[in-house]
């Protein structure tokens, strides 16, 4: 579950990171649930956050994805805050519509963190 702040720099990084995990790094092990339909109460989205473990990637301190997931009974098993990751890695994206090399580097780092969380969650389910 990613932040929906596509008009915000860190929200764009959150969305790109989650897309990278679901389309490239762990495509057969993840399901992408978009925040806007969840906010609108689309049943299938609410059902998925209730029955599947959720990793939340929020862009800013508002933590909209986390709050919405919790509101709909989601089982959050991992959280990544892009703002914290940007500070941790010393990377600053350029803008919401052009991330630049540092922004794309941040996408790679966060996607790697999220993929590791997927692996840990799945390992725990196998035991």
Word description of this protein:
58% of the residues lie in helices and 10% in strands. The chain is mostly helical and 127 residues long. α1 (9-25) packs across α6 (100-126). The longest helix has 27 residues, at 100-126. The model has no long low-confidence stretch (mean pLDDT 91).
Overall pLDDT metric: 91
Helical coverage, percent range: 55-70%
This entry's quaternary arrangement is single chain
Low-confidence parts, pLDDT < 50 over ≥5 residues?
A: none
Computed structural class: mainly alpha
What is the rounded distance between the termini? 25 Å
Shape: globular
Outline the fold blueprint:
Elements: H1 9-25, H2 35-39, H3 43-51, E1 53-58, H4 64-71, E2 75-81, H5 82-89, H6 100-126
Please describe the structure with a list of short key phrases separated by commas or semicolons.
mainly alpha, 127 residues, 58% helix, two-stranded parallel ribbon, 6 helices, 2 strands
Summarize the structure in short:
The protein is mostly helical and 127 residues long. It is built from six helices and two strands, in the order αααβαβαα.
């Amino acid at each position: 579950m990613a932040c929906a702040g596509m008009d915000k720099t860190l929200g764009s990084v959150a969305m790109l990171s989650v897309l990278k995990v679901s389309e490239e790094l762990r495509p057969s092990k993840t399901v992408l649930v978009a925040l806007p339909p969840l906010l609108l109460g689309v049943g299938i989205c609410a059902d998925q956050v209730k029955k599947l473990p959720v990793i939340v990637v929020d862009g800013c301190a508002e933590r909209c994805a986390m709050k919405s997931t919790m509101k709909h009974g989601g089982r959050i098993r991992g959280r990544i805050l892009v703002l914290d990751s940007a500070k941790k890695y010393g990377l600053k994206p350029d803008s919401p519509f052009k991330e630049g090399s540092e922004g794309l580097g941040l996408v790679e780092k966060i996607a790697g963190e999220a993929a590791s969380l997927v692996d840990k969650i799945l390992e725990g389910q196998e035991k």
